# Entry
Amino acid sequence: MPTLYHAPNSRSTGIVQLIEEMGLTDQVDIVSVTIPRQDGSGSRDPRNPHPEGKVPYLVNESDYIRERGAIIAYLTDMFPESGLGRSVGIRSGANTCLGCSITRG
Ligand SMILES: N[C@@H](CCC(=O)N[C@@H](CS)C(=O)NCC(=O)O)C(=O)O
# Structure
């Protein structure tokens, strides 16, 4: 099962909303972690495997995906039945760029 590392009231909130909109709340494990906040509160969470401790971060088996755009493309490709992904046959240079955000371990 994919795991999303998420910190409330951060950029990862939009990914949580996407997961809810796609009806995937029982198919993606959402782990709340802490991050350093601009007001000085919070700190890097050792449970978050993101190399820089940031969110959102999606881990699925040996795939490690950072950047919201790449995570959105990954989830909508993985769950096409949600109907929120790109149509089959639509290819763009973005696919090449998104590849930079996915690490296969
Ligand atoms: N470009 C990344 C930005 C990720 C990012 O900077 N996330 C912030 C939260 S809004 C974070 O994790 N900050 C903690 C830190 O920089 O240590 C994305 O859009 O996914």
